[in-house]
Amino acid sequence: MTTIPAINRVRTSDPQTSFDAAESNDIHGSQVSVLLTLSFSGPLADHELVERIADYSPSRIRTARSELVDMGMVEFTGFYRLTAGNRRTQVWQVVKP
Q1: What SS3 class is residue 23?
Q2: Backbone angles phi, psi at 78, to 5 degrees
Q3: Residue 7 falls inside a structural domain
């Protein structure tokens, strides 16, 4: 599996509360959970990822997916699904090597 690089989440000029918040987030773990879920389940929309991953908040899951897109590890499939609220949402998949 591809290694997920560490990303700095605070600036040296940020207040201590920002450092505390960054330490309390399991950023790497949430990214790994999203990547593994997409790898084993196949393409999913964000709300489907949230339904399958119980260890993180919906916001953290969406952010982890977005971070993985930025890293080139996850991509938009070109397809959409509907949410429970009948809204169209993008479907994501792991980038194939």
Answers
A1: helix
A2: 95, -5
A3: no
Question: Tens digit of pLDDT per residue, the chain (97 long)?
Answer: 455 554 556 677 888 776 666 665 678 999 999 999 999 999 999 999 999 999 999 999 999 999 999 999 999 999 999 999 999 999 999 999 8
Answer whether residue 2 is part of any domain. no
Q: How far apart are CA 42 and CA 73, in angstroms?
A: 14
Q: pTM for this structure?
A: 0.77
Which amino acid, 4? I
Contact 76, 92 (CB under 8 A): yes
Residue 6: both structure tokens together: 């560490």
Q: Is 11 contained in some domain?
A: no
